[in-house]
Amino acid sequence: MNEDEAFEYVKNTLRKEKITPYHSHELEVVKSVERCINCGLCISHCPVVAAVGVDRFSGPRSIAVELSRSPPEFWSTADVVYLCTGCGTCREVCPKNVDIPEVVNLIRARIFEHRPDLVPKSLHVLREVLTEYYLAFEPWEDKEEKNESRDMRLERLGLPFVQDKILDKAEVLLYPGCQAEERAQEVREAAKVILDHFDVDYTLLDDMSCCGLPSRLMGDHETERVLAKQLKEKVKKLGIKTVVTTCAGCTSSLSDISYRNEWGVPAVHILEFLAEEIGLEKIDSATKGSTEFSDVHVTVHDPCHLIRHTSRQITDFALDILRQLPGVKVTESEANDSCCGGGGLVSYHSDDVAKAVVKENMEAIQKTSADRLVTPCPLCTAQIESNLFKTGSSVEVDDLTVFIAQRLPKKR
Ligand code: SF4
Ligand code: SF4
Question: Could you give the CA distance from residue 404 to residue 253 in angstroms, rounded to a whole number?
């Protein structure tokens, strides 16, 4: 019996008691809690505590130290663990490296398995969509309508249409993620424009499926495993050397799955691909002559899933690329790395909390006097755009992949 089989055996014997044992990799996370010295730094930096107060969200330390020990506490804390946006700030500031976002995921997984009645109803709806379509959104029923919506977006943004490339073998897999596949189609199209412009040997999937992050965040490990297995098979069959994404969550999720499931294939955000594989010089010479756009003053939002779950270097890549685009002035916001409130599936069931979290961002964006906010994630774009709009702000919001693609000369 190998380790996984032994784990499943023990798990089944404990099922009646509503107990799930910890797998060896989960034990590392749980043991990290023992290092806590109660310094309180995580509480003072948690954006949810700052936004709604400890009466509504008791905070990261309480989740780690008091609520992560045994099943009765898991059940009694259900209303707290679903309010964590998974931003990773607590882990970043913790002097003892306590992995609270992962503790949250472990607790959610146990609640999902033994007390699904405590999981917010909207997450059950999301799960049904995921298990039926292998996507986080119901796909468009009418493909023609979907294409019309895409074409209207491209026209409004001045982006050309590049035919989908679906190959049998390619160096790069362009993985747009569910949001850009079914909702923010302009981001998927902009990534194609960029890769096409630099003659990258890439393909899209003929049947796009979710990276599994929403399943992981709601605690549905079974669906997460199914989705990860599907993707691994697709990536291997296509002979892919690098997966390129346009979404912060997909980047962190696919990097993690690739490492855990030994894909041997890195997953990177398109900004990283541009900076590291294409090179700033090539981007500079490609965009130098671009005179179509008038000068624009931008500020940047850095998605948590890129800077805290992947690498802070991506912020530098974003700034390096932006600063060499003609006519672009960049002013950094004081809250550039503050959570947009859209993570951890919080907006699905507690939109008031998500809105309270993004407020700090709104105020800092206004202070920069920028005309436009850019961010390399379609989910952050949607979250910030809708909240800025409601405040009556005139600041426009663009996904950074779109912003870059717009400034490339049209290929003939
Ligand atoms: S991950 Fe973010 S929201 Fe969740 S407890 Fe930590 S700091 Fe708070
Ligand atoms: S920052 Fe780390 S050590 Fe300090 S209270 Fe939070 S979990 Fe404990």
Answer: 24
